[in-house]
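Note to self: keep these together.
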Amino acid sequence: MERYQDWNCEHTDLVDELIDFMEEKEIEILGLSETKCCGGGEKVLRLGYRLIWGGGREKKIGVDVIISERMWGMVVEVVRVNDRILKLRLGDKYQNILQEYTPQTGCKEEKIEDFLEILDN
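Structure:
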């Protein structure tokens, strides 16, 4: 049984604590938003977990995913759409897992419309 959880988290320096939480709650994929990460990449963590991140040129916004070793074996593609959307394609049936950080209330309407247009595609 796959379990998914989503958190708003400004810092990913608590990775060990997040892995402990995932182990305790049997969560296979943990999505993190507002991580303020820069660029994109991935890193192997303890117990075979993997951190995948996507951000912009500046340390603003950013989305990350921590995924178990078992679920990582099902990933066929990682797509960093932009600093607000990260997509994992899983398995032969191409299930999509989206980690996104929606523009906040008060953002310019144009920014919200652009985000929604990208999501629709």
